[in-house]
Amino acid sequence: MNKYLDIAPEVKEALENNRPVVALESTIISHGMPYPQNVQTALAVEELIREAGAVPATIAIIGGRLKAGLTADEIEYLGKEGQNVAKTSRRDLPVLVALGRDGATTVATTMMIAHMAGISVFATGGIGGVHRGAETTMDISADLEEMAQTPVMVVCAGAKSILDLGLTLEYLETKGVPVIGYGTDELPAFYTRTSGFGVDYQLDSPEDIAKVFHARQELGLSGGMLVTNPVPEEYSMDPAVINTAIDQAVAEAEQQGIHGKKVTPFLLARIKEITGGDSLESNIALVRNNALLAAKTAIELSKLK
What we know:
Layout: E1 5-7, H1 9-16, E2 21-24, H2 27-32, H3 37-52, E3 55-62, E4 65-68, H4 72-81, E5 86-88, H5 93-99, E6 103-105, H6 107-117, E7 121-123, H7 134-137, H8 142-149, E8 153-156, H9 165-174, E9 179-182, E10 201-203, H10 206-218, E11 225-228, H11 239-255, H12 263-274, H13 278-304
Parallel strand pairs: 1-4, 2-3, 2-7, 5-6, 7-8, 8-11, 9-10, 9-11
Antiparallel strand pairs: 3-4, 3-6
């Protein structure tokens, strides 16, 4: 085991006994939602996973230690500290570990730490991807590169609609990452169920998703798998409304010179303000929905191991 890694007792016991475990990221707590909704959502999602028959493992860096599984107090701490906690991608890990600092994990670092701990299934809201204008800025999320090399299944509501979804899919294809649509042949766009872009394969059951991922592992293929799960219909936003809000937020970010890792938190906060909070409600619903699918899939995967 990595000497910098701490696995929570509940998670460690589950892994040792081949019980299903679902990893959860922590950037959504510190940077994705306001307090106290962030803490309430994180704890509720953990409980949802337990009720479904799996064990949750929220992942973060606390005092320089890589944590696979957080206590309620640690989740509360991250929620209250918010954006004071470093948003942590692969490049940031050695700095935080060496200096004993705190970090909230993105999709990329959650995948890394989950894999170190032996966790194969990870639920999140939406993945990072190729940003609009990347042909000049080269702004491409490290999440995509991590999926190309780390063997963890990522269950999400598609790529965030603040991104260039077509180029994001092209990048994943180049890297050999299969994009699965759960009950859909179209890539969900986070707040909305449709995007106009097709997925690689449509699968209609957690059992089939688990079979495909298990076969990928047994074939010795590098990298992970992306499972896209549309936001529940009653929480899906009008594409025209959300796209108008996104365009406005993107324009404001450009005007204010916001770039790098600060872009996504800024855009999500502005979109929430522009939509009168509707985007936050959708965000919470889709995270819960993804966690439930991940739990069901982890259960099926544990039967195959």
